[in-house]
Amino acid sequence: MANLNKVMVIGNLTRDPEIKYTPKGSAIADIALAINRNYTTDSGEKREETTYVDIVLYGRLAEIAGEYLKKGRPVYIEGRLKLDTWDDKQTGQKRSKMRVVGEGLQLLGSRDGVREGSSSGGGGEYDEADRAVGARRPQPRPESGRPATSRPPADPDLDVEHDDIPF
Questions:
Q1: Is residue 161 domain-resident?
Q2: CATH code at 98?
Q3: Taking the complete model, does pTM exceed 0.90, yes or no?
Q4: What is the CA radius of gyration of the chain?
Q5: In a domain? residue 164
């Protein structure tokens, strides 16, 4: 039988990333997301449910998280589930915790933390191989302070007013 271990979540960071380094210098980032779900009960009452998810990132993804992510920032994480188990030193009991091991992330919103709907651009998408995939960059602003508008080259046969179209 086939197996699948794939997780995709979008949420807001509950705290700034905690970055640690291994003795060999590899970065490890611990982050946590709050994921909201809005729904309506059978009686018509609107409710909101929040799920908190712990995520660990390794290598370059951890460095990117440490550099760009801050508390409250929305982010998309792709990864896999992993069950960590250990013995509690104080009680001697076995403990366990389910986490997401992030294998890719996409920064959502804008660089300055403004929420979606802002005209100030977006984020970037990163995976374990440290490739920026489809990274969006803000458009340069002209000196007048207004956003630059791009217009395709004019074609005299296609550049006609709507009133000139015969149908």
A1: no
A2: 2.40.50.140
A3: no
A4: 23
A5: no
State the DSSP string of 65-106.
HHHH--TT-EEEEEEEEEEEEEE-TTT--EEEEEEEEEEEEE
Domain count, the chain: 1
Predicted local confidence at residue 112, as pLDDT: 60
151 belongs to a structural domain: no
Its domain, for residue 86, covers 7-141
The burial class, CB within 10 Å (0-12 / 13-18 / 19+), for 17 is buried
Residue 52 lies in a domain: yes
What are 11-56's pLDDT values in tens digits?
999 999 999 999 999 999 999 999 999 999 999 999 999 999 999 9
Distance CA 9, CA 90 (A): 34
Angle ∠(81,83,62) on CA atoms, nearest 5: 60
Q: Are 108 and 76 contacting, i.e. CB atoms less than 8 angstroms apart?
A: yes
Pair 19, 87: CB distance under 8 Å: no
CB contact burial 37-73 (16+ within 10 A = b; e otherwise): eeeeeeeeeeeeeeeebebbbbebbbbbbbebbeeeb
Is-contact 127 104, C-beta < 8 A? yes
